[in-house]
Amino acid sequence: MTAPTERLVFDSSAELVSTAASRFIAAVTAAQEARGIATIALTGGSNGIALLRELARDSGDISWNRIELYWGDERFLPAADPERNALQAEEALFDHIQIDPARIHEIPASDGDFGDDIDAATTEYARLVGHDTIFDIHLLGMGGEGHINSLFPHTDATAEESRSVVAVTDSPKPPPRRISLTFPVINSSREVWFLVSGAEKAEAVAAAASGASRHDWPCAGAHGTENTVWFLDRAAAAQLPN
């Protein structure tokens, strides 16, 4: 049986983020009650980081030391580069909560233990993710061409069917070098949540809703095993059928 897909449309990105934060708290606490630990793949981007800021203000009943945090993708840049998702998340959330740093599983930086060797860094992140990790929530942003994580249309990374983590060395969106989780991991997640706003995303949203090929529109290929939720502002939802 196919898992359900929800499409929730909001008047503003602020309302989108606020609702996503409330549902995040509920989903994480439910996962902690059911399995002891909640396992989450975070995303960057304006809405992904805004969600973390919202959680810094009010994280409800989440026990931050019963959560494992990963990233769906990361720019392969020095650790202090402001474009790194991990640094943005630290400033938005981690600096404001009590969490064991060992529960934050960052994708290696280009000046970390593996230096500028992106293949070694990718292998290390695959080791951190492991073979048996199932995300309770995999958060996703989306580009106007439908990319999710660092999976872009008509690329080897998007076509990957077995490896959990890949190095991307020719991203069409700068910077060119990135490390990304792949569809086998995304689609094994219990819930996949999209946080999408802006008129430039409307065509991709509509393509995903119509069942387009993931090779043309990567966003169309991402689904949770239990639920898929699209949090959309009205501009991003503008081309959805009534």
Structure description:
With 242 residues, the protein is α/β, with parallel strands linked by helices. The protein is 30% helix and 18% strand. It has seven helices and nine strands; from the N terminus they run βαβαββααβαββαβαβ. The chain has helices at 13-35, 45-57, 85-92, 118-129, 156-159, 183-186, 202-209, and strands at residues 5-10, 38-42, 67-71, 73-75, 137-140, 165-168, 178-181, 191-196, 227-233. Strands 1-9-8-5-2-3 form a six-stranded parallel β-sheet, with helices on one face. A three-stranded antiparallel β-sheet has the order 4-7-6. Helix 1 (13-35) crosses helix 2. It is globular and about 50 Å long.
Short synopsis of the structure:
The chain has 242 residues and is of the alpha/beta class.
